[in-house]
Design a protein that fits this description.
Distance between the termini: 46 Å
Strand order of the largest sheet: 3-2-1-4-5-6-7-8
CATH class of the largest domain: Mainly Alpha
Bound molecules: nicotinamide-adenine-dinucleotide
Structural class: alpha/beta
Length: about 500
């Protein structure tokens, strides 16, 4: 089988959102492209839309004028599939239904040459299942683009049980030649991105379910940690119906593993028709979107008798610098205590501690200190002034400490976001669960560590990849947070990945 697909004729089946984008990218890379759609006229309309898109790029100075005609001349709307029998590569982007895809590929096998590669852009169906029944299942591979195809650089190259490695490699090389960043994935539910991303929604939905905070507060915390959109506004954008359907399909595909369980909060939104932007209302109302959070009044923390910064590492260093500045006018600088097993600020008899996963009331009980507050992990170092940061005060704390804890966070340069006393607050909890899910994906051979990092950064614009977070936070902290979640909630959702346990044991 000759598997160089350079300049090979391509047939794109399905001229919808994704197919049109794939045809554009292939044609711009120099391939002759046939575009076929079941609906008569759809392929020709897609070509017309492509002409308008390319003209738009020319007027913005992002494309040379002569490239328009060259690209368009390579795209031919096909009246029938048989017209494109000379294709060396087929990329399927039709409706997301197993039987429709199987039927199409069986028909294509009778039309295209023996050495043609068959690729599917499915976002959720098993590649193994689509290939079942083909005469040559080894030549079927997933080529999963992201929307919008011309802009999104990630392509998941998904291998099913039968996919020949040479076929996956040919698609990998081709995606690269098209200017994309391909990542190998094994066909498992959700592939890489849609699987590892589940906790980004699930943890916020769990926090909403127990009324830990309002959507805007949770969104603010995660955006302050570098995520481009908070989970609530992102779910509103995706549509709760779509997101709920993906969650359910990943849940079912994993034999109802509780880790992937959908949320009643989400179900309620779907049942009520609050689907997000498209219906004018989801977590937020549109076009307004998320309400601005009220700016908390500037509070001056009471003058302490004694203060100390505990912990080691860059975060403790920056807390020490901030506390020193905050105390400059009121007394001696804070002491520095390393090796005490926690990170944060000790003020008189109170503790303002970086979350280790445990809720504040557990920290208070274990330390024998009544006045405890825990704060979230400010993931971005050094934190910008005014970074929003979640915190919670222990149940038995004095009224004076309830007022002083947010004032101290302000004095350290943060904008405090008050949460109920939940384990791991919002950023540390979400990131730990993203890392845990990525670790399981690697454990199961779905992808490599580098593949997961590239996929999450390029597919979803995450500010860092899960294994980059793991390197920054350390396996001990991540495992501690997931264990603390498990200790609070029990059940299967918060089980620590065996891969992480091994990493921890390896030091
Ligand atoms: P779409 O509805 O915009 O387009 C699908 C097109 O396929 C339609 O024009 C339809 O007429 C045509 N079609 C349906 N059945 C056909 C058949 N048997 N033969 C030929 N044409 C047929 O859908 P889309 O969003 O472009 O999605 C297409 C595929 O890409 C799906 O498998 C989807 O899961 C996947 N995908 C979508 C996205 C996304 O964000 N939209 C992202 C990644 C992958």
């Amino acid at each position: 089988m000759n598997l160089s697909l350079q300049n090979a004729p391509v047939l794109v089946v399905g001229a919808g959102i994704m197919g049109a984008g794939i045809a554009q990218v292939a044609a711009q890379a120099g391939h002759p492209v046939w575009l076929f759609d079941l609906r008569p006229g759809a392929a020709a309309e897609a070509r017309q839309r492509l002409a308008a898109t390319l003209d738009g790029l020319v007027s913005k100075g992002r494309l040379a004028a002569d490239a328009v005609q060259a690209t368009l001349s390579r795209v031919t709307p096909a009246e029938t599939l048989a017209q494109a029998a000379g294709a060396a590569l087929v990329v399927e982007a039709i409706v997301e239904q197993l039987e429709a895809k199987r039927t199409l590929f069986r028909e294509l096998e009778g039309l295209v040459g023996e050495s043609a590669v068959l690729a599917t852009n499915t976002s959720s169906i098993s590649i193994t299942a689509i290939a079942n029944g083909l005469r040559h299942p080894g030549r079927l591979v997933g080529m999963h683009f992201f929307n919008p195809v011309p802009l999104m650089r990630l392509v998941e190259v998904v291998s099913g049980l039968a996919t020949e490695p040479a076929v996956a490699e040919a698609i990998f090389a081709l995606a690269r030649a098209w200017g994309k960043v391909p990542v190998h994935a094994r066909s498992t539910p959700g592939f890489i991105v849609n699987r590892i991303a589940r906790p980004y929604y699930a943890e916020t939905l769990a926090l909403l379910h127990e009324q830990a905070a309002a959507p805007a507060a949770l969104d603010s915390g995660l955006k302050a940690a570098g995520f481009r959109m908070g989970p609530c506004e992102l779910m509103d954008l995706i549509g709760h119906d779509t997101n709920f359907a993906v969650t359910q399909s990943v849940f079912e595909a994993n034999f109802f593993d509780r880790r992937f369980g959908p949320s009643l909060v989400q179900r309620e939104m779907v049942d009520g028709g609050l689907l997000g932007r498209k219906t004018g209302r989801g977590f937020y109302r549109y076009p307004q979107g998320a309400p601005a959070l009220a700016t908390p009044p500037r509070l001056a923390p009471p003058r302490p008798r004694a203060a100390a910064v505990h912990g080691e590492g860059p975060l403790a260093d920056s807390l020490h610098a901030a506390a020193t500045a905050a105390l400059a006018d009121t007394g001696p600088p804070p002491a520095r205590k390393r090796g005490s097993g926690w990170t944060g600020l000790e003020i008189d008899d109170a503790r303002l501690a970086l979350t280790d996963g445990r809720p504040a009331h557990e920290v208070a009980a274990a330390a024998g200190v009544a006045d405890v507050a825990v704060f979230d992990h400010p993931l971005v170092q050094p934190a910008a002034p005014g970074t929003a940061l979640a915190y919670a005060v222990s149940a038995g704390a004095s009224p004076a400490w309830r007022a002083a804890a947010p004032a101290w966070l302000q004095a350290l340069g943060f904008t405090p976001l008050s949460l109920q006393d939940t384990p791991g607050l919002v950023v540390a909890r979400t990131v730990a669960m993203l890392v845990n899910e990525a670790a399981d994906a690697v454990l199961q051979g779905v992808c490599t560590e580098d593949g997961a990092d590239a996929a999450m950064k390029l597919g979803l614009n995450y500010p860092a990849g899960p294994f980059e977070w793991l390197a920054a936070l350390g396996a001990a902290r991540v495992v501690a947070i997931v264990q603390a979640l498990d200790a609070t909630y029990r059940g299967e959702r918060y089980r620590v990945s065996p891969w992480l346990r091994r990493r921890l044991a390896a030091g």
